[in-house]
Amino acid sequence: MSPQSAPWTKSSWQQHPVLQQPNWPDKAALNQVLGDLSNRPPLVFAGEIRALKDLLAKASQGEAFLIQGGDCSEDFSQVTAPKIRETLKVLLQMAVVLTYAGGKPVVKLGRIAGQFAKPRSADTEMVNGVELPSYRGDMVNSAEPIAAARIPDPNRIREGYYMAASTLNLLRAFTRGGFASLQRVHAWNQEFVAQSPMGRSYDRVAKQLSQAMQFMETIGIPTDIPQIRQAQFFTSHEALLLGYEEAMTREDSTGGGWYDCSAHMLWIGERTRQIDGAHVEFLRGVNNPIGVKIGPDYDLENVKQLIETLNPENEAGRLTLITRLGMKNIEKVLPPLLREAKREGYNIVWSCDPMHANTYTAPSGLKSRSFNDILSEITCFFETHWSEGTIPGGIHLEMTGENVTECTGGARNIIDEDLANNYLTTCDPRLNAEQSLEVAFQIAEMIRS
Ligand code: PEP
Ligand code: CO
């Protein structure tokens, strides 16, 4: 019997090899935190999770487009109203550009309210010439470069739960309470973006949208309706710390079935997608929409097994494959994957992560990504899908609403020497607000033509 034909429970992952888990020094303390969290309120509700799945089903058919974005690694110290608001603003701006200029409804999915755990390629890392245990995300240890701060502390899981809850609370307030109303579309342009070429392009879109709404009002079509006054916004993170994900998993009291209520969507990272591994075992049994990252060295048979294990009913909206192939490889390695998936008739949301295989180390030692490389991978992603007759359904970005200097290039042409000016990420380099908006305009251009 293959491991996955044994019955699933929310704990069955524990019978499988599990990678990328912290070495918790005090197991009793860990179990106490997890036991406690398993009695706390869920962060999201099964009905919302199903609503997202329906929207993703549309994205898999080309009737909607997914924007998934946010920090590589959320930082507890940055769980503040301004930081959350600025990230939300850029995602809303990108969505407006793609909806209005690109002509597609947009599914807005944050890498937010729970993106606190990171897989690492090595157990130790060099910081300022000193070897330290790797930082594994704020839910595990602290990024502070001293050995004591790097010891995994289960209290951080508890703190992560409350940080996610307060983030989600503000997001719900913003998106339901008028902040995200399309009548405020002008107010989402950040001050530091407004005077830039991207800010001006955005202003033009916002103006047209305002005029369209004014026209509707003039002829008596009400604009005070939820479709205009509210935004639908969803959350996601990498399902990495399986003890936490298990603690947040609940049986739906209305429709039945198990849901991981830590976020609406969860994904499996490139490092933990082993077919017999614990992460695949855990996620196969929850009803959330799930994602799987696919890197350039994928094995086609292995990807097919993943698809059939994670989505045996071929349900549309259930599975998003997030390809992160690198601008140098994508042209060669994406077509065989698309051809086989098409031949098999798999229902998949194809999403492009143009970040994770385009990272380089600048001479200063800072990790960066070039805006042109990112754009090249995105362009090739669209062109390859179109030539193979498959559907480019979404984009997965590491981005922030702040004016950071982490990725080079873009309209302001950030160069390697500028990176240190405002390099704030605790993990991978993110697009800043202006660069993110530029990506949205480029995609709008492509999907319109
Ligand atoms: C990430 O999304 O931050 C990440 C670690 O990606 P991947 O698993 O694709 O390397
Ligand atoms: Co990352």
Automatic annotation (TrEMBL):
Name the record gives this protein: Phospho-2-dehydro-3-deoxyheptonate aldolase
Domain of life of the native organism: Bacteria
Family classification: Belongs to the class-II DAHP synthase family.
Keyword Amino-acid biosynthesis attributed: yes
Sequence positions that bind phosphoenolpyruvate: 111, 270-271, 293, 324
Substrates-to-products reaction catalysed: D-erythrose 4-phosphate + phosphoenolpyruvate + H2O = 7-phospho-2-dehydro-3-deoxy-D-arabino-heptonate + phosphate
Co-factor note (free text): Binds 1 divalent cation per subunit. The enzyme is active with manganese, cobalt or cadmium ions.
Pfam families listed in its UniProt record: DAHP_synth_2
Any single biological process term in GO: aromatic amino acid family biosynthetic process
GO molecular function terms listed in the Swiss-Prot or TrEMBL record: 3-deoxy-7-phosphoheptulonate synthase activity
Keyword Manganese: yes
PANTHER family: PHOSPHO-2-DEHYDRO-3-DEOXYHEPTONATE ALDOLASE (PTHR21337:SF0), PHOSPHO-2-DEHYDRO-3-DEOXYHEPTONATE ALDOLASE 1, 2 (PTHR21337)
Coiled coil: none
Gene3D superfamilies documented for this protein: Aldolase class I
